[in-house]
Amino acid sequence: MNTLPLFPDSPETRATTPAVPALLAQLWQWADAGWLRRLDAAFAQWLAERDATGGAVPLLAAALLAHMEGKGHSCLLLQDLHSRLPQWLDWPADPAAQQALTQLQTWLPRDAAGWQAALAASPLVELRSALSVDQTPPAATAATDAQKDCPPLVLQPRGGTLRLYLRRYHQYEQRVAQALLARARQQSTFPAPDIAEWLARLFPATASQPDAAINWQKAACALALHSRLGIITGGPGTGKTYTAARLITAALALADDPAQLRIRLAAPTGKAAARLTESLQQALQSLPPGVQEQPALLQALQQLPAARTLHSLLGSRPDTRQLRHHAGNPLELDWLIVDEASMVHLEMMAALLDALPPHAHLVLLGDKDQLASVEAGSVLGDLCGQAELGHYGATTAQFLQQASGHPPPAAMCQPAGAAALALAQSTVMLRESRRFGGAIGQLAQAVQHMDGAAMARILAGLQQNHGAAHGVFWKEPAGLAEAARLAWQGHGPAPGYQPLAEALLAAPRWPAGNARGQTPVQAQAQPPQAPPAWLDEHAAWVRRVLAALERFRILCATREGEWGVAGMNALVMQALRQHGLPVRMQGWFAGRVVMVTRNDAALGVFNGDIGIALPAPQERQSLRVYFTGGGHAGPDANTGSHAQPRSITVSRLQHAETAYAMTVHKSQGSEFEHVLLVLPGRISPVLSRELLYTGLTRARAAFSYLAPAAGIWEHAMRQRTFRASGLADWLQNTADAGH
Ligand SMILES: Nc1ncnc2c1ncn2[C@@H]1O[C@H](COP(=O)(O)OP(=O)(O)OP(=O)(O)O)[C@@H](O)[C@H]1O
C-alpha cells in the first residue's frame, strides 16, 4: 500500500525554486565547473525539451538522479536527499562549490511528502503504487528499451521509502528480483536421498572436519542442488571454488547422462574467468577416491569448458547494447556457475537472468563484503544482506538434515510458523578462511568488524618492527618518496616493479643477423623472417614478463592527484625510465602496462583486461599488447605458436589506459603477491570499509599501505559504502510462508 500521504507542495520549496531556463543555465554552469557531469545537465535539458510543464524540481531531480547513477546508485532516495546531499555529491571544499551546494539544497523538498507533491504533477514522472510489479516480459522490455511513450522517470514508494528511478533501472530491479525469486522457489527433481549419497562421498568426514556439526560447504551444495538457484558467499579462501567443484561433480553424478549435461562457467572479467578455470581445475584434482571410480563422470569433468566472461557468454556485440542471448534466444546450458558475482552490475544481472533458460540452475559465487560493481547496482550485497543470519525456514532445515546430515543451528532458523524469505533458502555464507592468516588476515578482520582495538594492537606490533611485519607495511602520514621506494623495491621479499623491469630488460637477443645485438625492448626492430626457435624464445620471454607483472600492483582509491592512479603511474614510469626502459609519457612504448576501458567483442577484449605492450616477434617496429589471464590455448593467429598468450596489435586497441596503478574497484577479481594500497590525504565518500577490505584481500602474501595524512585509514574503516538501491526491498517484501 502507498504509505506516503500526498500533501500539497510546500510553499517554502516553490518560493526558492528557479524557473526552468534559469535552472538549466545553472546546471550547465555546475557542469562546466566539473561538479556535475555534462551528461547530467544534458539529461535535464533533454527532459525540459520534452515537457517542462512540471516546473524545475523534476528536472533538478533528474539531473541529480543521472549524476548519482554515474556514481553507482540505481535510484535516488528522495526523503534523505535534502539532508545527505553534501555527503552524496561530495563537491569540492572551496567556497564557490559549497555556496552552490547550499543553494541547490534550498531548492529541494525536505521530505517524502514534499517530493511527491513536487513530482506527481509532472508528465515526466510515473507514480507507481507500492505494490505494483511490472508484468512486461523481459524480451519485450529489452526490445522497446526506453519505451518511448512512457514517462522516463518512475517514482516508487515501497517499504516506507520513496525512490526515484530512471525507468530502465526500475525495470532491471524488478526483473532481477522476480527472476531470482522464481528460481529460488523452483525445486529441482533430484531426490534428497540421492543428493545425500553423493554429498557424503564428496565431503567425507576428516580429522579437521569431523561430521559433528553442519558443514557449510556441503550445505551450500545441497541447497544449490535443491532449487534452481544457489548463492554462495564468503571471504577469500573460504572455499567457494572448492565447493563449486564438488557441486559440479554432484550435478554431473546426478544427471541421467553426464556427457549431455551442459555446465558453463563465467565471470565478469577475463582475469576472473581465467582464475576460476585455473582454481576449479586444481579443486577437481583433489576430489575424493569415490569419484575416480566413475569413468563417465571423470570424462565429463575433464571436458568442462574454460570459464568465459559474461560479456562473451551473453554475446555482447560491437556498437550495440543488445546481446545475442536474451529471453527470445536463451543460452544453451543446464548449469551456470558465475564467480566474482559482487562485480556483476544490475544491468548485467538483468540481462543474464533474461537469457537463462527456465530449467537451468544458476549458482552465484562471490564475496558480499567486497566493493560493489563499478557500474550501478550492488546486486550481490543486496542479495546477501541477511546471509550472516541464515533465516532458514522449517522445510529448508529439514531438507538440510536429510541431504547433508545436519540441520542449521537453531539461531539461524526462523521461529516456528514464521514466514521465510525465498532467497535465504538458497543462500549460504562460508566463514572459515583456509588461506588467509597472518597480519593481512588480522587486518582484514579488524576492518570488517570496525574493530579499533584490534587495529591498534596490529599497528603497535608493526611499529615495533618499523612499520613492517609478517608481510604488512603500514604508514601514515607518508611521503611520495616512500611510495616511490615501495613501488620499486617492495619491502623485504615482497616485490615492487623492479622484477618486472628486470624481466623486460632480459629480453632475448635478436637472432644472428641483427648487427646491433640489441634486445627487442631497446630496439623494437628485428629481421623480417624470425626462425621458429626465436619465436619460442620470444613466447617464453612474454610469459616471464606476464608472470612478473602479476606479482605486484599499486591500488588507489581515486583516479586523479598525486596519490591517485595518475600520480602513481607517473611515479612508476619515472622509475622505469631511470632504469633504462624506453618510457614515453604519452602513447605506446615497450613495457607499458595497460587496462582495457571498454568492451570490444570484435577484438575479444573486455573492460578490465590487463596487458603489457611488448615488441611483436615478427612485425618490424610493431608493438602488441599481451594479456594476462583469459588467454586462449589455441595457436596465436599471428605467429602460429601454441605457446603465445592472447595479444593484439596496439594500433587496434583504442580504449586502454596506463595501469601500473589502478583503482581498487578495477582490481576486483585479481590477486597479486604484493599489493601497495595508497589513499589520498583528503577525506571523501570513496574511502570506505569495503574499499580497505577489497584492497587488503587482493594481496596474497604481502600488503603495504601509505597515505599522506594521519587518520585516513581510521576514517575509511568507519565508513560503509552506500549504494542507493531498491533491490533488497523487492526481494524482502515477498515472503514465502512455510518454505
Ligand atoms: N573443505 C576443505 N578441505 C580442505 N581444503 C579446503 C577446503 N575448502 C577449501 N580448501 C582449500 O582452501 C583453499 C582456498 O579455497 P578456494 O580457492 O576454494 O577459496 P575461494 O573462496 O574460492 O577463494 P577466492 O575468493 O580467493 O577465490 C584452496 O587451497 C582449497 O583447496
UniProtKB/TrEMBL annotation:
Residues covered by the RecBCD enzyme subunit RecD N-terminal domain: 33-127
Record text on subunit structure and interactions: Heterotrimer of RecB, RecC and RecD. All subunits contribute to DNA-binding.
Keywords (A to Z) from UniProt: ATP-binding, DNA damage, DNA repair, DNA-binding, Exonuclease, Helicase, Hydrolase, Isomerase, Nuclease, Nucleotide-binding
Domain UvrD-like helicase C-terminal: residue ranges: 659-701
Lineage: Bacteria, Pseudomonadati, Pseudomonadota, Betaproteobacteria, Burkholderiales
Pfam families, sorted: AAA_19 (PF13245), RecD_N (PF21185), UvrD_C_2 (PF13538)
Alphabetical list of HAMAP family matching this protein: RecD
Name this polypeptide is given: RecBCD enzyme subunit RecD
Gene Ontology cellular component annotations, sorted alphabetically: exodeoxyribonuclease V complex
Superkingdom: Bacteria
Organism of this sequence: Corticibacter populi
EC number: 5.6.2.3
